User: Fold this.
Amino acid sequence: MIRIRDIHKQYEMGPTVVHALDGVSMDITAGEFVAIVGPSGSGKSTLMNIIGCLDTPDRGEYVLAGEPVAELSDDQLAEIRNLRIGFVFQNFNLLPRATALENVELPLIYRGRGARARRRVAEEMLERVGLADRMTHLPSELSGGQRQRVAIARALVGGPSVILADEPTGALDTRTGGEIMDLFHRLNRDGVTVILVTHDPALAAQTGRSFRLLDGRIVGNGLIDNRREEAVQ
Amino acid sequence: MKLGAQMIMLWENGAMSLRSILSNKGRAFLTALGVMIGVASVIGLTALGQGARVSVEGRLSHLGANLLIIYSGEPRGTSLVRQRTTNIAPMLTREDLTFLDSLPQELVTKTAPESSMNAQLKVENRNAAATVIGTDPDYPDVRNFRPVYGAFFTELDVESRRNVAAIGVQVYRDLFPDGRDPLGQTIRINGFPFQVVAIMEEKGSPTQDASVLIPFSTYRRSLSGSDNYAIINVQAASPEVMYELQEIIERELLSLRRVPSMEFANFYIANQMDLISTVTGVADTFTLLLGGIAAISLLVGGIGIMNIMLVSVAERTREIGVRMALGAKPRHIMTQFLTEAIILSAGGGTIGVLLGNLFSWGAQRFGGLASLVTPESVLLAFSFALATGLFFGGYPAYRASRLDPIEALRYE
Ligand SMILES: Nc1ncnc2c1ncn2[C@@H]1O[C@H](COP(=O)(O)OP(=O)(O)OP(=O)(O)O)[C@@H](O)[C@H]1O
Ligand SMILES: [Mg+2]
Assistant:
């Protein structure tokens, strides 16, 4: 499903060059639930942006569902982002002047779904993340955790086949975070591939396996099988 | 994407643009203001130009409809305006007039010869100067200069060479300041007694208002002694035949005089059509000029739209990034901003059309100016405004659509 080979991404900041990704390779099969862990600044978000077809690597190969992403047009990329990928951004990226409901409807607009169908699906999604009573609020009128849940609802509303969640429970208490994780697990059981960036080892442990990033590289052969570790312990 | 989905996208774009415009009404108004003023001035100023045209046309038709004027002498400058020429040797003959009267009804409806001179008028001990015109009973019809009181002299008056006179309003005011009924009163023209039979309508032109009309037969006997006419007015049957008629007359009058060409002729013909096309040509140029100035202001309005749209795109970079991240294609972003520019310019244009009409109405009502809003100018100004919006909104919209999603998301 996802095949990444020797990807590099660097940023030139004046004289110094930051290697955000420095030769990352990974394979993720359809239906997997994986975690990406690593210290702050290690390149996790950068990698997620590339997997989500938002950013392009300087060097290296990325094949998504058999298609080399580098060869896709802007329109094709937009379609992939719209139809196949659900992205929960680390900083939410909600439209400040749109209500929670309108934010959640956004991906459906670009599919050309009618207003009524859109609204129904979006409402359903907001209910599932526990925001039934906050639909007409603007992001500025919501708490951090509520905003995060709007962002999650927006990522899930289009029924994507891949969910990219960058610290999706960072602003949530343990119980709400647990509910969100349950949601991801349920979707994963239905066949959705979930890629989760997290700092929380307990959350990472709930996934199938983890990649550990350090200074833009995958360490430990890039493969930590959570279940086997558990078994060893 | 299927057609239905396309329609939904279009609708969504409209709704989104409208929302974004409404969320900043003050700025939207200022943005559209340039277009508003541009459209209003195109409509208002061309209305003044066209108003001038129509009023000049109207005034020209006061001369009489479908008028050809044959003058004695050589053409001089814009002879057209010189309606009455005293002191020119009358060189148009009775033969000429007979020929003109023999022309078929499809070409000529009426003719009226005239000669004129300056004369001294006297009633009791009051004196006045006036132009005395000797002419025929058809003169009021041909020159569209009619009596308002009393009756013009008749064929019978001409045949019996009666001393009767129709006087211009100015003459009436000069000679009868007490405002008494002048009909039947006797005035003296160069010493000869004439009986007043009519007062002519007020034309606002001194040559007409200060004239006295008498039968040509009487004029010849008492005042000039010449059989010839200084001028023959010819009323053509329709505007379409006027140039043809002019040619026929020139040919025949030249041959009567045994003269090879108009260069050597002792007459010339003023064609009302020429006058109308000259004057309306000037008015049209005027309209075009005003329209051009107004179009420039519309252009400036367009630049205003571009300016604000660029700011708006910059301000909403993150929003564009979010939309792109969620699946908006470049053309979706493009249409969103283009729709916004079009709504602004169409809105500005609509208000401009109203303002332009208001201006035109006001100019007429309170400024006393002739003003005419033509549908063409409204259509032109409005479509120009739309085109301005498309054109000047196009660049910012294109810029927005070319943004890199990840850069846009990071934009602060
Ligand atoms: N646009 C950019 N310009 C310059 N440097 C960048 C840019 N984006 C990321 N970086 C650098 O690349 C490195 C990786 O950043 P990234 O956001 O991927 O880290 P991260 O692993 O997601 O960190 P965190 O856990 O704090 O979210 C950082 O050192 C960061 O400074
Ligand atoms: Mg990050």
